[in-house]
Amino acid sequence: MSHQSDNRRVVVSGAKTLMQKLSTTIKSLCSPRGRPLIRFNSSSSTENNLITINKTTYSQDEWTNISKPIFNSIGRNIHLQPCHPIGIIRDIVESHFPAFSKYSNLPPNVSVKDNFDDLGFAMDHPGRSKTDTYYINKDNVLRTHTSAHQTAAFRESDQFLITADVYRRDAIDRSHYPVFHQMEGAKLWPKHHDIENTIQCLQVSVEQPAPPFHSLSNPVQPQHSLKQVEAVVRHLKTSLEGVIADIFSKINAGEHMKVRWVETFFPFTSPSWELEVWWNDQWLELLGCGVIQQRKGEMLGWAFGLGLERIAMILFGIPDIRLFWSLDPRFLEQFQANSISVFKPYSMYPSCYKDVSFWENTSSFHENDFMELIRGIAGDLVEDVKLIDKFIHPKTHRRSFCYRINYRSMDRSLTHNQVNSLQQLVRNDLVAKLGVELR
What we know:
Layout: H1 16-29, E1 38-41, E2 50-53, E3 56-59, H2 68-73, H3 85-95, E4 101-103, E5 109-111, H4 112-115, E6 135-137, E7 140-142, H5 150-156, E8 159-167, E9 179-190, E10 205-207, H6 226-249, E11 258-266, E12 269-279, E13 282-292, E14 299-307, H7 308-316, H8 329-332, E15 352-359, H9 367-378, E16 382-392, E17 399-407, H10 416-434, E18 437-438
Parallel strand pairs: 4-8, 10-11
Antiparallel strand pairs: 1-2, 2-3, 5-7, 6-7, 8-9, 9-14, 11-12, 12-13, 13-14, 15-17, 15-18, 16-17
């Protein structure tokens, strides 16, 4: 990454007066929401800056790449609110596993070891990149998945559910947000336990009920017998089919539901699948799961992970992922605990788009860095960012990009002056932080 996220704005030469004029406008537009749990302790040199997250203090280094909008999301805990769509889905899933240990208030700051190393992520896995992950420093990150807590949870219980906010650098559009919520479940048995007698039969229509898992791409682990794996897989699939059937029945009571299982790959399960549901005349992926990789010991079992926002957007009819973070009563008061109701839009404020074109000066430009720069300036005031043109100069071979930034607030109209102020900050930071040449 080509800049340090020390939360201090860097401007190009000659822009100081302009920035002072814009400061009042930007402060009113982008003020943090929620209770701040993080503080920056500045010292005389950048490398000695400290970050405190949930009472743990870290030193920044060249890996640090977390912006203030991301920090301000920590501690919102919308998955713990019983009348919030995310909290409603969590409660429904948890009700299907009454004997499981529940972990839903774990801090997001974890070690690289817990988040990647212990889960078998290769050192060159793209998920480890600074363009994909928020690093507190080289040894610590904001968790990218709930599996970061899996090892610790297994030390306390052989069956558990973990629900948490997770953090990934990503595109800006209506279905992607840098903070979202995952739920992970896992269950273990001794290798010679009679698993078959614990399986409950369900009346769910399943297409491709037993996809192959003996291939090289999705193999049975060598320490497991075929009979053992088949029993674990049946328990896993019937458990998850029951959860999904219950969730979807709350909005389509009495209607026939179809699901199917599709082979896939995950580094921490084998064999592995994704569960899809037939919804609005198309197959929708809902979750991933599989037989846990057994590296030692005499236990075997299954694990699954699902994205709560994806399910909530489908069932509640929520068109923009930013709405989950809204504090507007017109959004929050539409929902009740343990009930799924379709979202009623209360207003659609006008959008205002601005284009920005630039020459890339180095081959290190990454689109996620650009998206993060925009989020750091405009926060949730940007609805989406799209690449609308790309050009390679025939002589110099330099690459040029043109992006369209669509500004639209969810709770108020933005004036052209406000949008122009934000756009100017974006242009300034593109030069100062990403080293591009504006066109």
